[in-house]
Amino acid sequence: MKRDRILRGLKFVLFAVLFLTVFGFVVRSLWNWLTPALFGWHLITFWQAVGILLLSKILFGGFRGGPGRHMYWRHRMRERWEHMTPEEREKFREGMRGRCGPFGPPAAQPKA
């Protein structure tokens, strides 16, 4: 059991180092290929490329994986909507109109 955990930890470290190495070289190569020709900037080293990757992670929150992970709230709201009665849905819509203004198709106005 403990041996499996050690192997998983070693695999994680191996893939992290591999990821860092590959993406560091890709960023360095792209930077050194594009920016001097386009903007006249200097060439960068591998470690500077790794620093750019880390900075982009901090600033933009990249490397998240699949597109569905951060959209969990949408799935949860759809499930809640499906379990609401028509009266609960209308009450929810009225509450949202009070906060956000009208949305959806306009309701039919009764003719006088």
Q: Provide the helix percentage.
A: over 70%
Instruction: Give the uncertain stretches in residue-range form.
Output: none
- Helix/strand order: HHHH
Q: What proportion strand?
A: under 5%
Tally of individual helices: 4
Tell me how many strands there are.
Answer: 0
What general form does the structure show? flat
Largest sheet: none
Question: What Rg, in angstroms, do the CA atoms define?
Answer: 26 Å
Arithmetic mean of pLDDT:
84
Termini gap: 77 Å
Secondary structural class:
mainly alpha
Explain this structure.
By secondary structure, the protein is mainly α. It has helices spanning 2-39, 46-60, 72-82, 86-100. It contains 4 helices and no strands.
Essential attributes:
0% strand, mainly alpha, 112 residues
Helices, strands, pairings?
Elements: H1 2-39, H2 46-60, H3 72-82, H4 86-100
Helix pairs in contact: 1-2
